[in-house]
């Protein structure tokens, strides 16, 4: 086992090469997983905000109120 | 375009492809892991040490498949890019642009493992040989494509512009390769004979072929994941994405 | 020349761009000044050894000229894009590729030609021998239009984006590697007394090819980068 890990004296070259291979590809594989979750969460949050805005607008149908909301929404997003 | 089979036409619709890629990705990755386990067992344990390079040659099992993939991915990206520029198909644009990071990753691995292999066998990390220089230029091409794509505010426009750059690169890469070769014969400075005509024995060869197949499966899995995620961003206003966000976005 | 004819349109664009360049003469002087500064810095970095400077002179001048041109590329379409005249050009009945070819020619005349004129001065500052200077100027005469044409395609691709300086350099590097190799190869061959005609012939062949293809590619790239 130790002889295997030693790689005939070339351990310092062989194992880092394999480490780079696996680390880079693992990062490449996981990147879309995280990104997908991020995109869906963001979209969900945006839809929730829109729904809440819609509900408020239906509750108090005054022009000034909706405008104020729209402006606030615009500045925060 | 009657010659395109019906299933292909259906697959190029984003929601259908999203589901298809989601189903296929674990299978591709599973095959990739299985083949990697077999290939590396054969390469690291069963194959005898090389009579000249000792055990250092075992880097071949990741270096050569990565080098092959760096060109293979560029080829796929160029085909998808051509379709994107000519027919403006959304899925082709996405495939072309999402191929670039995968290709850049493989090119980076090729360069790093190559210098880790070069140091003990030729005594140098880097030399301005045609293959090494072309590989470095390939990395710059990938980075240029990624950079151009992200410089645009409109994703689809950026994808088409970067696809055009991919096509320019297809013409350019062989020219770079041959001009560097010419340059290398002109400057007879450091003559390291890099890749002699070498034959590789069966015991050493089959793990290499298995690893090449494994990286293909890995590429398919990675591309599925990336394109799938990209389609969500592109189609974020569409119903199918909104329904998905309702179910999975909390 | 009938007004509105192809030849008249080409002449009008060429005259307009050259006039605009002439009105802002300071901008023409900038790349030349930049090349002068970079070349002056090299002896300080490498030491005043004449043999060493002569050995690197060809390469240094070539790379300096390339970088100076890279600085000026950004201005190729910038102003026309901002005032909307580029869109007018795209809508014009005359073929866009030819019009862009004229713009590239005007840009080459106003940025690369001054650099070629000072190149012998820069080369002799670094003690490049006389016959090699002649080959250097010949190589520059073929290499700089090639770079202008290649660069124009990339500038057209980045036309729709905000930031482009560093990106342009990254995109241009793979394209200019062969140009630099052949141009520098000709100079170093002339310096060592070898026949230098082969690399110059390669450059000329590439230039002939690019003169036809690059304006077409430039027009296609521009249509992609600025539609809608």
Please characterize this protein's 3D structure.
The complex is a heterotrimer of chains A (77), B (250) and C (228). Chain A has three helices and no strands. Chain A has helices spanning 2-6, 11-59, 63-76. Chain A is rod-shaped and about 80 Å long. With 250 residues, chain B is mainly alpha-helical. The radius of gyration of chain B is 21 Å and the shape is globular. With 228 residues, chain C is mainly α. Chain C has helices at 6-23, 25-46, 50-73, 75-82, 85-91, 96-125, 130-157, 165-191, 197-225.
Short description:
Chain A has helices at residues 2-6, 11-59, 63-76. Chain A is an all-alpha fold and 77 residues long. Chain A has one domain.
Outline the biggest β-sheet of chain C: none
Mean of residue pLDDT values of chain A: 78
Helix content of chain A: over 70%
Label the overall shape of chain A.
Answer: rod-shaped
Annotation, overall tally of beta strands of chain C? 0
List the domain count of chain C as a whole number: 1
Identify low-pLDDT runs of chain A.
71-77
Give the class of chain C from helix and strand content and strand pairing. mainly alpha
SSE ordering of chain A: HHH
> Number of folding domains of chain A?
1
**Helix-strand topology string of chain C:** HHHHHHHHH
Radius of gyration of chain A: 27 Å
- Biggest sheet record of chain A: none
Q: Estimate what percentage of residues of chain A fall within beta strands.
A: under 5%
Low-confidence stretches of chain C: none
- Distance between the amino and carboxyl termini of chain C: 34 Å
Oligomer: heterotrimer
